[in-house]
């Protein structure tokens, strides 16, 4: 039964990664040596990459992915060699290197330069000097170095960086006797999308016994304060949940504001957006998320971006387990009764927020990208990206947890799965197969048989509504009900509501409040005049510096307030989306300007700020605004 099922699942997705033009399946990568030299003058990198390959299939050529690179020279086994460039497509330009098919182990070296069209790096002016950072996920590594640019290939690395300023790369720092030369060693095999370089006037401060945080000097103390309370606790909880942390150190780097994501799980050097530094530790769960990737994604990796849900769904699952365990530990230290139960309430509360995000994304995304497994043939994975792989992936794992008998029954599987697949990359069929392999001997195959795998993995839209514990959400829902009845009865809202109402709420409950009000107001006829009174009722949301509040609060105001472009509310919000680079805020921000003000104003705002944005962010916003890319 199960083997037929798994074969069926396997057949519904590609055998090989469709987003690479390389012939990666013919080779094993024994080792990679990558050296990058930074020029802040020309805003390019000079690179040398050397691969030690095992030719598994007697191939007579090596084909690597490249994108907008200038290739200077190719060597095979140390000797200058012929090469060809294939045709340019949406996946870049393949670099084709003829080799002797009879030689089992072979060394390929490519010397090259990046160009100003590189989509993986951004040169910027930092607060204290010139700065460069890279971001390769999903398929931008090919514009940083020629590679088998698929998460299906892993290699141990040695990295060298040359730069007048401090460098970090995706490995453990090694001693260097030369000024301006930095060495890093990554003994654990990693895929190309985790390769990274940062260089700038970086300083570091300890935030745990095996963790430093890096940033430029002016923000360093604030970064340290934000994370030092939680860092080591996060690692220890994750170690109990999965198994020991294998990467030795977990350091992180808070980037300048144009960093386009919340965080990025670079091995040994997690990258973080500065929007996390909100001085109240309310966004540390992003750190928990990136830490969780040390197991899900970095040790155990999706074999192509078609199975991206396995990276992110698992990571959100682990992140929520960590957040729940921290809440339980805090409740315990405060002497509360049933701390474990409270931890679960917090975990479920986070699931409810996640579910709201899932509904939003399912409503706005192209239906073909609302399934767990994607078909990415001739697609840019950046276009498929949304919260769906995170939240639907999470829902799938939570569904399995519940079906199989709750935490106690699911926890041993977590350890088994991550041990089995560490250092490798896998697809969704192998995941399902492993579930059967683990639970069949425990007499639970029939539970697995009752799962509708086809709908879960390949169906579009929302999955079935999970059974959430709503204890913490109900407090918010009751308060929102008061809003609804007051409006229906034409009550005086200035008299009925004030900021003191929400004093007893936790930060996350307040976020749910703003989201739920927005949802309710969509279904009611709420006058713009009423909306315009909200800043008076809740001045703290209006003055917040926390992106999670700023984004939700402005969605509430600008969606229903009929403000015009010159209104200070709109101006302030437009300036904010120009000053942050995190796509989670920037992209919905422009969409809000389109729907709440005008397309014209959204485009004019984008033109004002486009040069601040990272190349990936700029491209995505242009697509959202209907501008040529
Ligand atoms: N790996 C992702 C970021 C990413 C995904 C970059 C796809 C490029 C392509 C990272 O781990 C992530 O998920 N970040 C989230 C954090 C959040 C879910 C806590 C983000 O950036 O918002
Ligand atoms: Zn992630």
From TrEMBL:
It comes from the Eukaryota. It catalyses: an epoxide + H2O = an ethanediol. GO terms for cellular component: cytosol; nucleus. A peptide binds at residues 135-137, 260-265, 582-584. The active site is at 290 (proton acceptor), 390 (proton donor). It is an enzyme of class 3 (hydrolase). SMART domains: Leuk-A4-hydro_C. The keyword Cell membrane does not apply. GO terms for biological process: proteolysis. GO terms for molecular function: aminopeptidase activity; epoxide hydrolase activity; metallopeptidase activity; zinc ion binding. The keyword Cell wall biogenesis/degradation does not apply. Binds 1 zinc ion per subunit. Residues 471-625 form the Peptidase M1 leukotriene A4 hydrolase/aminopeptidase C-terminal domain. Belongs to the peptidase M1 family. This is Leukotriene A(4) hydrolase. It comes from [Candida] subhashii.
């Amino acid at each position: 039964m199960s083997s037929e099922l798994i074969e069926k699942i396997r057949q519904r997705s590609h055998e090989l990664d469709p987003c690479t033009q390389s012939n990666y399946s013919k080779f094993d990568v024994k080792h990679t040596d990558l050296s990058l030299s930074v020029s802040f003058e020309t805003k390019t990198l000079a690179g040398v990459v050397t691969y030690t390959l095992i030719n598994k299939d007697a191939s007579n050529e090596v084909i690597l992915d490249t994108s907008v690179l200038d290739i200077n020279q190719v060597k095979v086994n140390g000797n200058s060699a012929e090469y060809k460039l294939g045709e340019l497509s949406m996946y870049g330009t393949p670099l084709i290197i003829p080799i002797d098919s009879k030689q089992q182990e072979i060394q390929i070296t490519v010397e090259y330069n990046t160009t100003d069209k590189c989509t993986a790096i951004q040169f910027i002016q930092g607060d204290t000097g010139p700065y460069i950072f890279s971001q390769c996920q999903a398929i931008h590594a090919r514009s940083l170095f020629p590679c088998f640019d698929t998460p299906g290939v892993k290699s141990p690395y040695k990295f060298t960086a040359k730069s007048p300023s401090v460098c970090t790369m995706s490995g453990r720092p090694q001693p260097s006797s030369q000024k301006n030369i930095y060495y890093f060693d990554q003994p654990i095999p990693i895929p190309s999308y985790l390769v990274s370089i940062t260089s700038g006037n970086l300083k570091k401060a300890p935030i745990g016994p095996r963790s430093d945080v890096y940033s430029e000097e002016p923000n360093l103390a604030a970064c340290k304060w934000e994370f030092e309370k939680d860092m080591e606790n996060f690692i220890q909880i994750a170690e109990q949940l999965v198994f020991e942390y294998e990467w030795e150190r977990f350091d992180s780097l808070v980037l300048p504001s144009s960093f386009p994501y919340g965080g990025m799980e670079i091995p040994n050097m997690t990258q973080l957006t500065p929007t996390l530094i909100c001085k109240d530790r309310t966004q540390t769960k992003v750190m928990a998320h990136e830490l969780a990737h040390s197991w899900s994604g970095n040790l155990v990796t999706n074999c192509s971006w078609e199975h991206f849900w396995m990276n992110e769904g698992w990571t959100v699952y682990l992140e929520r387990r960590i957040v729940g365990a921290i809440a339980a530990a805090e409740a315990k230290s405060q002497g509360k009764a049933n701390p474990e139960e409270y931890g679960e309430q917090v975990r479920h509360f986070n699931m409810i927020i996640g579910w709201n995000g899932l509904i939003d994304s399912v409503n706005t995304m192209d239906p073909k990208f609302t399934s767990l497994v994607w078909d990415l043939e001739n697609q840019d994975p950046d276009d498929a990206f949304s919260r769906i792989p995170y939240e639907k992936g999470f829902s799938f794992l939570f569904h399995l947890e519940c079906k199989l008998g709750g935490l106690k029954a699911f926890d041993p599987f977590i350890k088994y799965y991550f041990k089995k697949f560490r250092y490798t990359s896998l697809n969704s069929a192998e995941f399902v197969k492993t579930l059967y392999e683990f639970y069949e001997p425990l007499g639970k195959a029939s539970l697995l048989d009752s799962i509708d795998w086809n709908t879960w993995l390949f169906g579009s839209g929302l999955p079935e509504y999970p059974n959430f514990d709503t204890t913490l959400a109900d407090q918010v829902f009751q308060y929102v009900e008061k809003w609804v009845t007051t409006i229906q009865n034409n009550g005086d809202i200035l008299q009925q509501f004030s900021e003191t109402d929400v004093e007893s709420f936790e930060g996350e409950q307040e976020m749910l409040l703003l989201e739920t009000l927005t949802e309710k107001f969509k279904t009611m006829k709420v006058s713009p005049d009423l909306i315009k009174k909200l800043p008076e009722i809740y001045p703290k949301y209006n003055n917040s510096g926390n992106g999670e509040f700023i984004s939700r609060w402005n969605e509430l105001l600008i969606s229903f307030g009929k403000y015009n472009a010159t209104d200070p509310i709109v101006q302030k919000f437009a300036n904010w989306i120009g000053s942050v680079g995190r796509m989670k805020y920037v992209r919905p921000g422009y969409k809000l300007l389109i729907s709440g003000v005008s397309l014209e104003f959204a485009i004019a705002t984008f033109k004002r700020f486009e040069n601040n944005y990272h190349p990936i962010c700029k491209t995505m916003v242009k697509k959202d605004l209907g501008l040529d890319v």
